């Protein structure tokens, strides 16, 4: 990792370390936006496909519109490439995955998820990072949507994602809620959100 990237990583961790209890999500979202350029990052606690043996009830920490997530839950969640066999293997072994790489081996319905649902909402690619609590073993994911017209996922993003996930783990021991952002709870399946689904914005 280059010195500049290392400094950015340290800035994120310093900001997260200073978060008060229950305010981790908004602090983390701001930190990765300011220092890494990862806008609209969101957190899902307890994703069913990674938290095996749990009740699979996710907690969403996001600023995205409820109707975006509701459409995902009602129509698209079974076709999410991150919840596919390849997605689970990649996330479990590497601690991260991108929608672009999973799309190469995706089924027809999974490609529809990416091409019809996400792209319609301004998302061309997505970076997903696993954060596992060392104390409890609880699993969360940090998702970062990318609009290809503005910025694509680059090698530096992949390196940062692989490094950041394990370093964030100790901070996820504390409960993320309550946070002063929209919390969409009890939605089974994986999380999905994008910049066009953000509260106050319109589909692109």
Topology:
Blueprint: H1 3-17, H2 24-36, E1 42-45, E2 59-61, H3 66-76, H4 85-94, E3 96-98, H5 99-103, H6 108-118, E4 125-132, E5 139-146, H7 155-168, E6 183-185
Antiparallel strand pairs: 1-2, 1-5, 2-6, 3-4, 4-5
Helix pairs in contact: 1-2, 1-7
Structure description:
The relative contact order is 0.23. The chain has 204 residues and is α+β, with helices and mostly antiparallel strands. Residues 177-196 and 199-204 have low confidence and may be disordered. Helix 1 (3-17) runs antiparallel to helix 2 (24-36) and helix 1 (3-17) packs parallel to helix 7. The longest helix has 15 residues, at 3-17. The chain contains 7 helices and 6 strands.
Briefly characterize the structure.
The protein is α+β, with helices and mostly antiparallel strands.
Task: For this entry, give a set of tags.
alpha+beta, six-stranded antiparallel β-sheet, 204 residues, 7 helices
């Amino acid at each position: 990792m280059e010195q500049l990237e290392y400094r950015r990583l340290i800035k994120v961790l310093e900001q997260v370390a200073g978060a008060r209890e229950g305010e981790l999500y908004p602090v983390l979202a701001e930190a990765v936006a300011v220092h890494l350029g990862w806008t609209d990052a969101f957190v899902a606690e307890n994703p069913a496909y990674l938290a095996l043996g749990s009740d699979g009830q996710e907690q969403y920490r996001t600023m995205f519109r409820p109707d975006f997530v509701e459409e995902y839950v009602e129509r698209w969640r079974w076709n999410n490439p991150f919840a596919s066999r390849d997605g689970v293997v990649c996330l479990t072994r590497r601690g991260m995955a991108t929608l672009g790489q999973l799309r190469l081996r995706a089924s027809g319905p999974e490609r529809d998820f990416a091409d019809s649902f996400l792209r319609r909402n301004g998302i061309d690619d997505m970076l997903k990072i696993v954060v596992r609590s060392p104390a409890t073993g609880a699993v969360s994911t940090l998702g970062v949507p990318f609009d290809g017209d503005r910025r694509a996922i680059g090698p530096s993003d992949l390196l940062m994602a692989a490094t950041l996930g394990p370093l964030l783990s100790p901070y996820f021991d504390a409960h993320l809620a309550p946070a002063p952002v929209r919390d969409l709870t009890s939605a089974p399946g994986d999380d999905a959100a994008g910049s066009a689904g953000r509260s106050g914005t319109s589909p692109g």
